[in-house]
């Protein structure tokens, strides 16, 4: 190795991707150690830093070209030593001139003072904060003012971020492309409109309201009425995920749904107020849609809904089938089950979607309208490769046996299905059709019954959910 030129040593070590392997290689000789120091661009640390500031200083001095740093204190306890604090962020800002991506998970000692230090990281383009409970909106504002190249911002369970001036400032910069706000209690759906012109640049938006506060927001009818009708330009949006949100007709997030011309993935989870018209408008606009996931609330007895009952129907599915001819993944779920007589989506609506679109992955959860007739129809689903059925209690062994006739099915997952037994899987045993069969918590299916039904088999039995 001593005779190898430097560029070959650089190439060889550059092909080692696992951190543990790189650590081992760097101990082999001084030459490898020095090359590793120059090549190492990312670093992930946490509870093992002790004493924290001295250890961080040493690491930053050793790896002078760091661009990505991930600091996580998940599972931290006081006996594990002191956590990273504001002084640690000062060390990072002074010692990592090339820092572009910073993640802070469960760093509960970080305050707004520490975030102010980050404002001097002029190359910072991605900041991800999870359960950094001491920071406020002022700290976020200091970062976005200083780091004008910020394109990715993730805030998860930042409970004290109670001002949104930083949203307005981000809107004026028009650089943000990826925004995730999850369970930040003081930030509501209406605040997102403050992004203003930045909506044009935004490619990914994930917004989740704390489920413990969702019903309180639903009852607050005045908050919904205060939303103003807005024209939201979001033509570059590729991925949209909304959870526990309120969708008000013609306002707020409802405006976003009908404007995403380049949307490829959408996830609507327990969003109260979604109407057929919202899904139809989205389908007519988003012809490039490849994936849709709908988890529909089943509680339609809330006061806000009494005067105007809401329910997604087959009209939504038919609009998707007619307009989104690139749709490959469909996931439909009801929050706590629906009786067949009042189910939002019928079997006809689901099958229309399957027959008109090249659906490769179909997942149904608590969809009582899907039964053995639906399984028979899937025999002509020429693109279907992955099928997941959870709590679909109308499917029996007769329907399950038809799975061996699906043209290209390779992965089958069954979860909490009461009507299927070992007999339903018998045609698959020894057929070598499936690459993977996963069976979870189906009371009438045994571990012996799944053996040989696929190249890879996963079985779990926990029936506590039934009692």
UniProtKB/TrEMBL annotation:
Residues 2-39 form the COI1 F-box domain. CDD domains: F-box_AtTIR1-like. Residues 311-450 form the F-box/LRR-repeat protein 15-like leucin rich repeat domain. GO terms for biological process: SCF-dependent proteasomal ubiquitin-dependent protein catabolic process. Gene3D superfamilies: 1.20.1280.50, Ribonuclease Inhibitor. It comes from the Eukaryota. SMART domains: LRR_CC. This is F-box/LRR-repeat protein 14. GO terms for cellular component: SCF ubiquitin ligase complex.
